[in-house]
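Record type: monomer structure entry
Structure origin: computed from sequence
Chain ID: A
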Amino acid sequence: MRVNKFDFLVDCFGECFRVPLEVRAELKRMKINPKLKSFWEGFKDFENENPGKVVEIETGSDKQKLFNFIKNGGFFGQIMGTGESAALTHAMVENGSVASNNLRDVKEFCERQNIDVICSEHILVYGCLQGLIENEEADKIWELMKEVQTLPQEEFSKIFKRHSDVMLSSLKKRGF
């Protein structure tokens, strides 16, 4: 089963994603959790095989000013974490999306800024729609993920039914 495997993200999204250096630092903490260690190891492999996919915010740049503004609550008065601020900054500057399960912090910001948010349930639906995993395996993965993350308690099959039409349309638009 592919739970907590970074290569699943690579299979789903290929060349389309970048990881902010600040998020990398947060991912590194996964290596001490036996249930998440394989995700960190997969990320390290990805990083070694794909130079330039871990992106930095250059000191003194306009991007850094935007990062600091977001982090300090400059947009809506909501102070953000370092990883969230970095992801939001890159998404704004590069017209991208944000992948996060921390919807409490990023959802309203992304809605106001018209930034797409991708979370674990979306990634599993994408994987099913692209034929990378079967729905039954996604259901098992979802149950295992709920053990280490705060996620909706419903079964994955219900999530798939709710999201699949919209995501299929989105995949086609993006050329997947």
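Annotation 1: The chain has a mean pLDDT of 84.
Annotation 2: The first strand starts at residue 19 and ends at 20.
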